[in-house]
């Protein structure tokens, strides 16, 4: 989405459009493997708290269930960080 602003001094319009860099095959494979790892992590956390996740959209979950999965993920990340500091 581009924003257009009118310059008061010159009366010209300027545009500040958001641009995104083009993906390369190398970036895509890294991104894909990171997403896969995060998805595995999420599924593991869901199993630990007893939430039935499926691949793809999980709109059937309540806010409480979704929050418990996210909370479990955060707990595991903090524990992992603390263990790496020892």
Architecture blueprint of SSEs:
Elements: E1 2-6, E2 13-17, H1 25-49, H2 63-85
Helix pairs in contact: 1-2
Round the mean pLDDT to the nearest integer and report it. Answer: 81
**Residues in β-strands, percent:** 5-15%
Strand line-up across the major sheet: 1-2
Element string (H = helix, E = strand): EEHH
The oligomeric status of these chains comes to: single chain
Largest sheet: 2 strands, antiparallel
Could you give the distance between the termini?
47 Å
Number of E strands: 2
Instruction: Report the structural category.
Output: mainly alpha
What is the overall shape? flat
The number of helices is 2
Provide the gyration radius in Å: 21 Å
| Residues in helices, as a percent range | 55-70%
Regions with pLDDT < 50 over 5+ consecutive residues?
none
Structural commentary:
The protein has 86 residues and is mainly alpha-helical. 56% of the residues lie in helices and 12% in strands. It contains two helices and two strands. It has a two-stranded antiparallel ribbon. A hairpin with a 6-residue loop joins strand 1 (2-6) and strand 2. Helix 1 (25-49) packs across helix 2 (63-85).
């Amino acid at each position: 989405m581009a924003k257009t602003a009118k310059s008061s001094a010159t009366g010209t319009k300027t545009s500040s459009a958001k641009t995104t860099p083009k993906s390369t095959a190398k970036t895509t494979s890294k991104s894909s493997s990171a997403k896969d790892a995060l998805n595995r992590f999420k599924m593991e956390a869901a199993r630990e708290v007893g939430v039935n996740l499926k691949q793809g959209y999980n709109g059937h979950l309540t806010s409480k269930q979704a929050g418990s999965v996210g909370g479990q993920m955060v707990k595991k990340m903090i524990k992992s960080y603390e263990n790496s500091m020892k």
